[in-house]
Amino acid sequence: MDIYSSGLPKHGRILGKIIEEIINLPGLKAGFFKCFSNMLFDTHCHLNFRAFRDDYDAVIEKCLEKKIWIVNVGTKYETSKKAIEIADKYSEGVFAAIGLHPIHLDTGLVKMKIDQEEIEFKSREESFDYQKYKELAQSSNRVIAIGEIGLDYYWRPKTKKKKELFKEKQRSLFLEQLKLAKELKLPVILHCRMAHYDLIEILLENSDLLPQKAVAHSFVGTKEELKKYLEFGFYIGFNGIIFKDIPGINFKEVIDYVPLERILIETDAPYLTPPFLGNERNTPLNVIYVAKEISNIKKIPFDKFTELTTENARLFFGLA
Ligand SMILES: [Zn+2]
Questions:
Q1: What is residue 143's three-state secondary structure?
Q2: Cβ-count burial of 155 within 10 angstroms (0-12 exposed, 13-18 middle, 19+ buried)?
Q3: Other CB atoms closer than 10 Å to residue 111's CB: what's the count?
Q4: What is the 3-state secondary structure (H, E, C) of 291-308?
Q5: pTM of the predicted structure, to 2 decimals
Q6: Disulfide-capable partner of 237 in 100, 133, 217, 256 (CB 3.0 to 4.6 Å)?
Q7: Which residues keep their CB under 5 angstroms from ion ligand 1?
Q8: How much distance in Å is there from the Cα of 6 to the middle of ligand 1?
Q9: Domain spans of the chain, in order of start
Q10: Domain covering 34-317, topology
Q11: Which range, of 32-41, 115-124, 144-153, 297-306, averages the lowest pLDDT?
Q12: In Å, how far are 101, 143, 254, 278 from 184, measured between CA atoms?
C-alpha cells in the first residue's frame, strides 16, 4: 500500500507533492541520494571569481546534474567571502575554502601583474587580519578548508635584500594561516609556485604547525619534492596542468608515484583549461578530463578511479 492508495487519498496526494517538491529543491536534488559512484569532486576551483560573475549558478546547476561536487577556493578576503556566499545557497555539493594567497599580500616590494579575473574591488591586502578571517571561517558550516595559502616566488624582487624581506613576509603570512587552520581544525589547501624547497623547510622548522591534513594543490614539482609532501602525509592535487609540457617536470612519473589514496582531482577553473579545449574558460565540468588521464596513467578503470578520488576528497574535507 502506498500513500496514494491509503484511506486518505487527499492527504496522501498532498504529502506526495511535498516530498516531490523537497527532492526537487536545487542543490538537494544532487545530494539527496547519497550514492558516490559515478561522482566527481573538483576539489579546487574559483567560481567565486569575476570570470563566473554572470553565470556561476548555471555552471553549478550543470555540475550538480552531472554529480560533480565542488570547492570554491578563496584567495583574499573578498573572494573568500564570495565563496561562502555561493556555498550557502546550496544544501549539498558546493563548499568554500578561505584564505589569503601569497600574491595578494601587498609586500610593497614587487610589482605583480594580478589577474583581473580575480578582482572585483581592491586588489591586495597589506596584512593578514587573523580575527577577521577567523570570523569569516566561522560564519558558515560550508567552510571546509583554509586555502589557498603558501608561497609564490613567481613575481619576486631583484635585489638580494628585497628578495629576503619578500620571502620573510610570505613566510610569516603562511605561518599565521597555518595557525588559524590548526585553531579551527580545518585542512589546508597549499599553493606553492617555484618555492617547494622553502615551503618544505618552513614546515620542518615549525612542526607544531604542520597541518594534519593538507593538499599540495596543482602540484608541479620533482619526484624528490613530491616524496617530501607524501612523507608529511599530504594529499596531492592534479588539474589540467598535467597536459602541459613543463621543462624538468615529468607528470607521468609523478602521478605513477602517488598512491591512489592520496590523489585529489581539481580544475583550478577558470584557469588551466586542458590545452585540447582551446582557450575557453575552464569550468569544473572539465574535471572529467583530468580524471580520465590519471586513471589511464594509473591503469585502473575510470569508474573505480572516480569513486576512489571522491572518497579521498570526502575524507580530506571531513564530509560524512
Ligand atoms: Zn587556485
A1: strand
A2: middle
A3: 7
A4: HHHHHHHHCCCHHHHHHH
A5: 0.86
A6: 217
A7: 268
A8: 54
A9: 1-33, 34-317
A10: TIM Barrel (3.20.20)
A11: 115-124
A12: 18, 11, 32, 40
